[in-house]
Prior knowledge:
Helix content is about 15%, strand content about 40%. By secondary structure, it is mostly beta strands.
Amino acid sequence: MLPFFKKNDGEKPKLEGAESAVSSEDILSEEVMEASDETDVETELSLHPAWTLTKEDIYSFQFLNNECPPLKPNQLSLSGINIIQDGDDYRVTAFVRNSLEKAISLGDTTLVLLNENDKVLGRRVFQLAELGEIPARSSRPWNFYFTKKDLLSTNIPAEGWKLAFLLETPVPEKHTLDLEDSWEKALSSANKKQLKKIVEDLGAPKEGEVNFIGLQAKVATEGELQITLLIRNGSKKEVQLEELPLVVEDAAGDIVASGGFKLDNLKVKGNTTKPWTFIFPKEQVTKATPDFSRWKAYPPNK
């Protein structure tokens, strides 16, 4: 097991990460108790009963807990302690802090690792029931492990980072267009308006269904096949695509190309459609003169 702290002679431990606090209502999905007249809440150190620590580690956690800023009533917070690399993975140690007047237990929760500019470096669903019951007005240290597949960047700072709760994004009532930032910047106002009209005319997919509709297909001069699909999410939950195998058929029903794509965790928000372009290299194109008067693309065996 990795040590909790890097031992530097003569140096006191310090909080290497920042604080991230949210209303307990956003996480617990229940009404909170009426707040007391206090404006600030100090949290006491609470160690998990199964943890066996040295006196030195207990002192360090106690010292760092005292360094944490006070919370407002009815908040949950993550206060970063340190990050230690273990091969390709990272162990993030942080205080889980509870300013409520009652003990709480948490379930499966999505946490994100952010840099000092709030850029997402990693994301993972954690089983926070393992934390046990967190007493009222307390701070419990815990280890959160981000594996290589959870990380979106290998540039993990030693200080200034933040561990945060990922709050659910409100799902739009009407099925809408969702553009990636790069598309938002690249497309003209006329192109955006046209895409919005296409999405509106198509209507929403069936509830809970994710499907693909071809928007544009062309063979480049180098022999590459470029297709643009509308990825339509009929679920209320965000869909995250890491890898996507695709087969393309033309109007004759012939397979034009097939291959797999790594998407770097492409996210499609609930009840939205996102356009995305896929490029098949020449060696994956199996028909020289496809008929794209009608065509479709789909995951194989679907």
